[in-house]
Amino acid sequence: MSDDPNQPKSQDIFAFSVTKKDAEIERLSSQLTEESDRRKEERFGWICALLALVNYLLLKDVGNFFTPLVVIVFELIALLVLARRSGLEYVELIISRLIGSVTGRLNGDK
User: Fold this and answer.
1) 66-93 pLDDT, tens per residue?
2) Which runs of E-coded beta strand occur in 1-110?
3) Which residues lie closer than 8 Å to 93 by C-beta, 6 or more apart?
């Protein structure tokens, strides 16, 4: 019988020990997930900033109030879909509550 600490003992066939390599793989995997989440959040922020700029440039000379409101509601729905596909749960929750409050006011609810 070998004294290798990485090999399970004969009576404990499902046991294993975590090696330095396994710990490093787990750490790197965690870092990759965090970086991916940060990039998704940054990408969503840039899309929102660009959308705000485009809205300003295109809707600044509109004479009525209804057209920008309808455009904003449709954009909020598009942002909700984008947030859901990007995995940004907290943004999805905020936007869905905002859409609910806007549509509730349009229906006469308070």
Assistant:
1) 888 888 888 888 888 888 888 888 888 8
2) none
3) none
Q: Which amino acid is at 8?
A: P
Total-model pTM: 0.65
CB 106 within 8 A of CB 59: no
Give the structural domain span for 33. 20-106
The count of structural domains within the chain is 1
Q: Is residue 2 situated within a structural domain? A: no
The contacts of residue 54 (CB under 8 Å, 6+ apart) are none
| pLDDT above 80 (res 22) | yes
The answer to the question of residue 30 being in a domain is yes
The residue with tokens 């990485």 is: 6
pLDDT at 62: 84
